[in-house]
Amino acid sequence: MLGLALPLHHTTTLCVELYACRLGLQAISLLGMSKVIVETDSIYLHHLLTSNECEIPTTIATIIRDIKFLLAQIGEYKLQWNYRETNFVADGFANYASYQASNQQWIVNPQAHRPELPDQLTFYLLCVLFGG
Fold it and tell me: Residue limits of the RNase H type-1 domain (predicted)?
């Protein structure tokens, strides 16, 4: 399980969900995982990724293509939708990130709470955080 909090500027909740999904799948790809369960509490995101009959808004078409491409690279995966009320882990991460973000030093000096992450993942996440 990977949890990550990043400062995102003005955007929609759907874009945040898409960004988080793509970031997680990129991390999975870097780690070479082949059996993955992707959970979301956004029924619209789940529908966008699982339905071939859904019209995708042009503003998010590129990131949807990226996510579908990354999913195709995984050997075995399951996309699972959960009721928002059952998503305690994501809620815990969000509350912790909100608490940490209330201090502006968090953005300037992020802390890795699990320094035993593989080097390639740590490097990738630092690049994402600092726009590299």
Answer: 9-97
Across the chain, the runs of DSSP E, i.e. the strands, are 35-40, 76-81
CATH of the domain at 109: 3.30.420.10
DSSP label at 103?
A: S
Whether residue 7 is contained in a domain is answered as: no
Residue span of the structural domain in which 24 resides: 13-130
80-131: per-residue pLDDT in tens? 888 766 666 667 766 776 676 666 655 566 555 555 666 666 666 666 666 6
Q: What are phi and psi of 37, to 5 degrees?
A: -115, 120
Q: Is residue 1 part of a domain?
A: no
